TrEMBL record:
GO terms for cellular component: protein-DNA complex. SUPFAM superfamilies: Periplasmic binding protein-like II, Winged helix' DNA-binding domain. Residues 2-59 form the HTH lysR-type domain. PROSITE patterns: HTH_LYSR. GO terms for molecular function: DNA binding; DNA-binding transcription factor activity. Keywords: DNA-binding, Transcription, Transcription regulation. Belongs to the LysR transcriptional regulatory family. InterPro entries: LysR_HTH_N (IPR000847), LysR_subst-bd (IPR005119), WH-like_DNA-bd_sf (IPR036388), WH_DNA-bd_sf (IPR036390). This is LysR family transcriptional regulator.
Length: 291
């Protein structure tokens, strides 16, 4: 097998066309350089240079080897810096899971900051509900999630990113489209309701059940995504409980009405990650999020 010193010696001789000038360029004498080239040719298994008393020329095999040799040396010079940058979290890959509504409220600004501060970190995005993000973090498919609590705090660490109100999405012109105030739970009697799956959208299901007394018999559709719920509201299929950031979805024909008696910070999104994660780029981004 050949060495990088032999390859560098070959490149110098090929570019200078002369052993003496190449040896001077490498700060060495000509005899050891000649031995390096001989060892290289033996390792490669073919003659790379034609020699005479006046000049040195590449053989066809040598010309082909020269192009690869330059790439090899360039890669060897980049490799230590790349390794150091990855170890320091300045380069590498970060796989981020996010919910649909977090993409409107949080994802854009977060990606902008990561790109500005860590331009050599490649970001891979995956739109998922919280339960899928948790699974992705556990099995190593994700590094960071933008998800809804609660989380197993023995396994995960997290940081709150957003707390907002729970509103009622209604079709514009609906009886509950109250422009000058909120609505009470009593006003939801006998109103068709679009509700969330207690398994695939557990966070919003539990939140609605805990905060707003409503009749389960009024549920006409069960969905997994806020976007789907708002689209059904626009189609006149019923009303839906949504986070205030759902307004950013930009679906026409929908109004968002405050619900009386609810605090304005009941809906949360957290950054979440595995406690013992070892991705240095993740550590950088976590520090960024926390500060």
């Amino acid at each position: 097998m050949f060495t990088l010193d032999q390859v560098r010696g070959f490149i110098a001789v090929a570019e200078e066309g002369h052993f003496g000038r190449a040896a001077e360029r490498l700060n060495m004498t000509q005899p050891p350089l000649s031995r390096q080239i001989q060892k290289l040719e033996k390792a490669v298994g073919t003659v790379l240079l034609e020699r005479d008393n006046r000049k040195v020329e590449l053989t066809p095999a040598g010309a082909a080897f020269l192009a690869e040799a330059k790439r090899l040396v360039a890669a060897s010079e980049r490799a230590p810096d790349a390794a150091r940058r990855i170890a320091a979290g300045m380069a590498g890959q970060l796989r981020i899971g996010f919910t649909a509504t977090s993409s409107f409220a949080l994802l854009g600004p977060l990606l902008g900051r990561i790109t500005a501060e860590l331009p050599d970190v490649d970001i891979e995005l995956h739109e998922m509900v919280t339960s899928q993000q948790v699974e992705g973090l556990q099995n190593g498919d994700l590094d960071l999630g933008l998800a809804r609590p609660p989380f197993d705090m023995n396994m995960f660490d997290s940081h709150p990113l957003l707390a907002e109100s729970l509103d009622l999405a209604v079709q514009q012109g609906h009886d509950l489209d109250v422009r000058d105030g909120g609505i009470s739970a009593d006003m939801l009697r006998n109103v068709p309701l679009i509700m969330y799956s207690p398994t695939d959208a557990r966070y919003f299901y539990d939140l609605a059940v805990r905060l707003v007394p409503f009749e389960h018999r009024n549920v006409v559709h069960t969905v997994n995504q806020i976007l789907t719920a708002v689209a059904l509201v626009a189609a006149g299929r019923g009303v839906a409980f949504v986070p205030r950031s759902a307004r950013l979805l930009g679906i026409d024909g929908v109004s968002y009405v405050p619900i009386d008696g609810l605090a304005d910070n009941v809906v949360e999104i957290h950054a979440v990650w595995i406690r013992d994660a070892r991705n240095p780029a993740l550590a950088r981004v976590v520090h960024m999020i926390r500060t």
